[in-house]
Amino acid sequence: MRMEQKWFTMAHITLLEVIHIYAQWQQSLAMKGICVYMFVQFTIKHLRIKLNFQRIAKDPIQLVTYLCIFQAALVAFEFWLLLLTSDWQQIVTLVLLMFANYLLLAKMFKDRIIIGRIYNPSEEDLQMIKQLKEEMEQKKTSQK
Asked: What is the value of pTM for the model shown?
């Protein structure tokens, strides 16, 4: 019965209305195509970001090393600017900036050494860890 009603209502549609419905249908298909295209682009961008994050997370020492190199270049550039300045206000400002950047460089270099020892331990570090584990096991057995 519902099917007959649809056919009945469709029988009274003019040609102009059919063209209008067809145009709306085409627009909806175009919108669906745009949405699919945008979804694909978003997925590709998301995967690219995920891959970049995985590359950084795989070797965090590399990121800290690049930051240390950038910080050292910044300090060298500030020193070069300090040599070229003659006005006392600029000299004071550059000295304060260099002092802050020296401190930041020292902290970042310390972090780089610590992260390097965590992710790539030397033989001495491995022996020390093994020794600490043995001492902890001895303490546990002696407490029981």
From this structure: 0.54
